């Protein structure tokens, strides 16, 4: 949200059995399809809600193997443009006048918190029929009909009264945090919901997102509002303490698993343990020290800032890096990191930079042991290529 509600976040619904023929026409998924994300938007294509497949919604690419290992704002804008240009929506008038970036690449902007609940196929069919038959005309209102209100409507379609507003924490404005908190509270009383919480990590390389807040939190924590709010609205002084006990203590990351896009089963994995993090970090530091002594290649953050972006024949992103007077293609995702002709040390530097970001201490950890293990295996494969290249140069 804008203005005084900045920091309350965005809310959407992911349905694993519901797919889409277009952003406005839903259907049941076919075998192998991974579902769609539906949300209410403000000022996009003249519609109330739009549906986008899961992987594009999170990463602005079609397949998990196309997800960048490390990103910057230029790469995010490039991938979004490539994906949104193919989306069957009417042209913007004028071009760039709508916030369509919200439809793709959400995991570049922020860490996301998910709450999985059990639903029945016949309920999905009813929801598909209901939404397809709706007018789907713009209805966004900040205070009464925002993205969290849409989530409330969808969740309550499956579990009536599971999600509700909070007078104290949010001044009766529906927020993403309140939607999550009330659903978690409902699940404690209704174990048949089978709720599981999980984290979708923000893609490494970009400025880290901030914690999500409720309305009262946003009012009080935003520095430009602290003095006038407390001075002119004495109610807020008491509301702050009450809001703390009713909502501020809610931690959406508590006990959460980690989402891994590479798992075709939509796998949720255990977070990396402290011992695992220390072990990997120690090994990574040794590699970085050895590379610093032996290599003259600039660090990846500097290289990517000047490198041109392209798509290879499979539609996967790569960068054209200037090295030794020539342009070298460096693959940016798991699908092409080892497939292009870049010197192994460039790809190694990319992977070291990613792992360095993943292994930063955090509470809770926002990466899984399986994800780090997969990245480490890729790093070892690149280092093996580098050793083989050195042996060939030495005549062995």
What does this structure look like?
The protein folds into two domains: 3-259, no CATH class; 271-393, no CATH class. Helix 13 runs antiparallel to helix 14 (369-393). Residues 1-7 and 213-247 have low confidence and may be disordered. The protein is globular. Strand 10 (308-311) and strand 11 form a beta hairpin. Helix content is 41%, strand content 14%. The strands form four sheets. It has a four-stranded mixed sheet with strand order 6-7-8-9, with helices on one face. The chain has 14 helices and twelve strands. It is α+β, with helices and mostly antiparallel strands and 396 residues long.
What is the topology?
Elements: E1 13-15, E2 18-22, E3 25-28, E4 36-40, E5 49-53, H1 54-59, H2 73-84, H3 106-109, E6 112-116, H4 121-133, H5 147-158, H6 167-170, H7 176-189, E7 196-200, H8 215-221, H9 223-232, H10 235-248, E8 257-259, E9 268-269, H11 274-294, H12 300-306, E10 308-311, E11 317-323, E12 326-331, H13 344-358, H14 369-393
Unreliable residue runs: 1-7, 213-247
Count of helical regions: 14
Gyration radius over CA: 23 Å
The end-to-end span amounts to 62 Å
Mean pLDDT equals: 84
Q: What is the N-to-C succession of helices and strands?
A: EEEEEHHHEHHHHEHHHEEHHEEEHH
Q: What is the oligomeric state here?
A: single chain
- The helix/strand class is alpha+beta
Major beta sheet, specifics? 4 strands, mixed
Helix content: 40-55%
Q: Beta-strand level of the residues, as a percent range? A: 5-15%
As for the number of domains, it is: 2
Shape: globular
Biggest sheet: strand arrangement = 6-7-8-9
What's the β-strand tally?
12
């Amino acid at each position: 949200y804008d203005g005084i509600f900045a920091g309350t976040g965005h809310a959407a619904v992911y349905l694993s059995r519901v797919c889409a023929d277009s952003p406005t026409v839903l259907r049941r998924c076919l075998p192998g399809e991974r579902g769609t994300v539906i949300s209410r938007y403000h000022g996009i294509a003249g519609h109330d809600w739009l549906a986008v497949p899961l992987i594009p919604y999170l990463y602005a690419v079609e397949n998990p193997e196309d997800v960048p290992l490390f990103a910057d704002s230029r790469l995010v804008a490039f991938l979004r443009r490539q994906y949104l240009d193919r989306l069957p929506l009417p042209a913007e008038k004028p071009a760039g006048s709508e916030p369509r970036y919200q439809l793709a690449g959400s995991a570049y902007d922020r860490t996301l918190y998910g709450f999985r609940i059990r639903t029945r196929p016949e309920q999905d069919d009813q929801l598909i029929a209901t939404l397809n038959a709706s007018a789907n005309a713009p209805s966004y209102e900040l205070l009464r009909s925002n993205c969290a209100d849409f989530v409330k409507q969808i969740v309550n379609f499956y579990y009536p009264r599971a999600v509700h507003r909070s007078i104290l924490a949010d001044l009766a404005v529906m927020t993403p945090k309140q939607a999550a908190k009330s659903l978690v509270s409902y699940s404690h009383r209704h174990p048949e919901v089978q709720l599981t919480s999980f984290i979708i990590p923000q893609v490494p390389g970009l400025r880290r997102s901030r914690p999500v807040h409720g309305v009262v939190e946003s009012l009080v924590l935003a520095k430009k509002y602290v003095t006038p709010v407390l001075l002119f609205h004495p109610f807020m002084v008491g509301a702050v303490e009450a809001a703390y006990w009713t909502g501020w203590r809610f931690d959406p990351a508590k006990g959460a698993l980690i989402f891994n896009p590479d798992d075709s089963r939509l796998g949720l994995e255990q977070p990396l343990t402290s011992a695992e993090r220390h072990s990997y970090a120690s090994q990574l530091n040794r590699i970085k020290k050895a590379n610093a002594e032996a290599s003259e290649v600039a660090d990846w953050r500097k290289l990517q800032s000047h490198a041109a972006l392209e798509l290879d024949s499979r539609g996967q992103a790569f960068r054209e890096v200037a090295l030794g007077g020539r342009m070298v293609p460096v693959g940016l995702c798991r699908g092409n990191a080892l497939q292009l002709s870049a010197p192994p040390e460039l790809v190694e530097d990319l992977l070291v930079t990613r792992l360095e970001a993943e292994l930063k201490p955090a509470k809770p950890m926002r990466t899984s042991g399986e994800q780090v293990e997969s990245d480490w295996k890729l790093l070892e494969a690149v280092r093996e290529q580098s050793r083989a290249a050195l042996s060939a140069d030495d005549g062995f």
